[in-house]
Specification:
Chain A has helices spanning 54-62, 119-123, 150-154, 176-179, 186-190, 201-217, 260-266, 268-291, 298-314; strands spanning 22-25, 40-45, 89-96, 103-110, 130-133, 138-140, 161-162, 169-170, 196-200, 224-226, 236-240. Chain A is α+β, with helices and mostly antiparallel strands and 318 residues long. Classes of the chains: A alpha+beta (318), B mainly alpha (232). Chain B: One of its GO terms (molecular function) is metal ion binding.
Amino acid sequence: MFPPIPNPTTAPVAPKLSDADLVRRSASGSPSQVEFKEPVAKLIDVSKCIGCKACQAACLEWNELHEEIGTFNGTYTNPPDLTPASLTLMRFTEWVNPETDNLEWLIRKDGCMHCADPGCLKACPAPGAIVQYSNGIVDFDHAKCIGCGYCVKGCPFNIPRISQVDHKAYKCTLCSDRVAVGQGPACQKACPTQAIVFGTKTQMKQWAEGRIKDLKSRGYKNAGLYDPPGVGGTHVMYVLQHADKPSIYAGLPDNPRISPIVEAWKGVTKYVGLGVMGFAALAGALHYLVNGANKVSPEDEANAEKLAAEKLSSGGRS
Amino acid sequence: MSAPYDLETGDAVHPGRPVQVDRYTVGARINHWVTAISLILLAISGLALFHPSLYFLTGLFGGGQMTRTIHPWIGVVLFFSFAGMFLRFWKANLWKSEDGTWMRRIRDVIAGHEEKLPELGKYNAGQKMVFWGMSLLIMVLITSGVVIWQAYFASYTTIEQQRIALLVHALAAVAIICVWIVHVYAAIWVKGTISAMTRGQVTGGWAWRHHRKWFRELVSSRKSGTRGTPAE
């Protein structure tokens, strides 16, 4: 058993996360002075999950969210997708292992992965609406969010959801408010089987190693840790029984990375675009300075008057 | 010149000193300025979300949320307004043989050697390219813009399609702002042009210098400014 995080004191605790901990801020320069904190991580052991949805309930409760009553869609996945209120969701997959011909029930807790290289943050146009703390947590600041949905396009995991009520983006915060006072996320606290554990990223990797060894000894030869390097690693990691095929777990990306289209849009286009527009304006100004105005001469006016007088009078009209 | 070359409704000559030529009707001018104001507002609000250093421009629209809300609606206004202009002007903007000659002598155009250029109809090749460029880019912008209009249309396309639309929208916006710079600069550089879109008139000398074929046709079709029966 992973040692549980002790219950907090009842006395007020000063938050340990503040603006001084931001390593990245959307649409802004890099913060100059950062007080680096030990990177944290949440480890989700899919092999230990029993699909009870305590994490989903705890998430709603802690974040004071209310999911609308929906309709049954024929699966245990409920609601059928992440929403602005459901920041985490158990996704159920029935998978027949071709090697053993056994039915395996794969239950993956979906939600923000807290990428080290966050696509949402890179796509965001509103300064400070998305921030990354030095401990790895990627958080949304709803006061600054403008509801454009660029984060949705930036995310390689299809996580953020835009509320149709207040037009702001919502996703898992890794309970940054709880972590700030030394607690683990609400979902981790509620998990009855320790399928979710929380600690420093180093601790979680070590803990995962033991779990993977155990799974391998039970015949899951492809068991492994999901900490995708394409996004610089994540601060939410999975232990998967079949780490060679992440996509069988309800479409977990095999090799996630920020889309090259988003990189091109937020990278070269932004700078070259401004440059091209500036060049066009400058070329105009320079041309005017060098060539001067293109003026109508008195001869032009005289020619026009002559032609008008000739034709219009010969036409027999006034 | 038997069949009308590229005269538009309302084009007429008023003899005098100087000769005055009607170039744009009141309707065309209102149509133009609605489009122009929309385009400028779209450029400002779009640039605000394009580069973080320009985000402060959202303040002109009442903040980020308001900018995000209003930008697509201005786009809808521009689309319909420009559609009106397209219907008015497309015929006179069809490509003619002298436009090729004009293009080949682009150096003389830039140097202002008007005397070395062929006689031109109502629009020169540069104006025609601005017209067709705007038309094409507005189609691209409205199409890609609808795809990324989060509040109403996000559920109709895949995220991958929306990513492509974002890139296309940004590139087309850069292109149309450049076309707009060319358009505005040409109006400033070629003196006597702006009155065409304010009072609707240019002088005969301006028409003679820049659009002689159009001017000749106007004169010989006897579309003089005197009120009365139209040309036979």
